[in-house]
Amino acid sequence: MKDVVNEEKIACFEAGIKLGALFHQFVGAPVSLENARILEMAMESCMRLQPFVVSAEVKIDRERLKEMVSSFGYISLSGELIRARVTVKVGETLARAELYWDDEKKYPMMRLI
Known about the structure:
Number of domains: 1
CATH topology: Pantoate--beta-alanine Ligase, Chain: A,domain 2
CATH superfamily: 7,8-dihydroneopterin aldolase (MptD)
CATH architecture: 2-Layer Sandwich
Structural class: alpha+beta
Oligomer: single chain
Shape: elongated
Radius of gyration: 15 Å
Strand order of the largest sheet: 2-4-5-6
Distance between the termini: 27 Å
């Protein structure tokens, strides 16, 4: 008999690891309105390469980006611009998680969904 509880814990852990790695790998990358989609695709592609990942989606908040962009036409990617979702599968167990900006806390947060 499979250890379903262990699968659930591992799946949740793996989902969190994927989002944490994404955040720490890409924060600071130069981003503009012109390259935002390219950066989203690169981030998604990097997450999909990792073990257990079934799907990955990354969105850069274009409205915030417009407000924050420097006179040089770009800024460094920050947590308040990123929204990401990942689905992982461990054994027969799926876990979905997201990275999002919490305006009240002024902090990037992660949660299972």
